[in-house]
Amino acid sequence: MSHPSLVTEDLTIRFGGHVAVNKVSCTFNPGELTVIVGPNGAGKTTYFNMISGQLPPSEGRVLKDGIDLTRMAPSARARHGVGRAFQLTNLFPKLTVLENIRLAVQAQEGAGRNFFTPVRRFTELTARAERYLEATRLEKVAHMTAAALPHGDQRKLEVALLMAMEPDIYMFDEPTAGMSLDHAPDVLDLIAEIKHDKSKTVLLVEHKMDVVRALADRIIVLHNGELIADGDPDEVMSSRIVREVYLGAAEETTA
Q1: Burial, 21: exposed, middle or buried (Cβ in 10 Å; 0-12, 13-18, 19+)?
Q2: How many domains, the chain?
Q3: Which of 166, 186, 212 is at the close of a domain?
Q4: In the predicted model, what is the mean pLDDT of residues 241-249?
Q5: 199 lies in a domain?
Q6: Residue 234 pLDDT exceeds 70
Q7: Domain boundary among 142, 166, 190
Q8: Is there a single domain that holds both residue 98 and residue 34?
Q9: 61-65, 104-108, 158-162, 171-175: the lowest-pLDDT one
């Protein structure tokens, strides 16, 4: 049995007198895609932000492969293999798609600030970038600037940039939000392909139940900042407490 790749221990955050996430403890394993669900205001994105380093917890710890990441900046966590997609629209909107990916490859090798790369090394970096370009089906727009891409292709570029950083932990926060019905399946297919690599751990915040059913190996449910369910997707979504949470949220929305 493999060891957990990521662990949160009693992860808690307070904003003034409000507890947004309260003592959430979870283990995440290689080869597993976990979807985090819950009604609006449940604390899903806040929990995500504490894992990836955007928010420091008030209490608790984040561990990756036994290493304590709790006080590390997002950039340091990225070097330890924690990758978060959809944080920024693009890294370099005025550069081409291929140039964006090549710079991500270069950064992964620890040479991100060295723009004056020898020709042979430049060729190697470009070849690697082209592999990610093909994997994300962006070959036809390789020489367009990132800013000129349609929204769906921008999302695919963000996946390509994340893949180029070669993380062990992939984090996606509502990856199809704002996407057309035509483009959404492309991004979901890419996430499904990442999931098939059993050395990778995938965390996904999502509210679309069709996406959850298609991708989830496991579901955890947050409500009012607390973990109320964790397990097999069918069992979790049919449990009484989860149904009550979602029905109550629906009633509040229509009231």
Answers
A1: buried
A2: 2
A3: 166
A4: 75
A5: yes
A6: yes
A7: 166
A8: no
A9: 104-108
Range of the domain at 123: 89-166
pLDDT of residue 175: 85
List, in sequence order, the alpha helices (H) in 57-96: 74-79
Residue written as token pair 């597993």: 32
Highest mean pLDDT of the ranges 30-44, 113-127, 184-198: 30-44
Residues 195, 77 share a domain: yes
Q: How far is CA 37 from CA 153, 182, 241, 251, in A?
A: 26, 24, 13, 18
- Residue 223, number of CB atoms within 10 A of its CB: 21
In the block, tokens 């470009």 appear at 126
Q: What is the DSSP letter of 121?
A: H
Measured N-to-C along each axis, helices 119-135 and 151-164 cross at an angle, to the nearest 10 degrees, of 120
Place 254 in a pLDDT band, splitting at 50, 70 and 90: very low
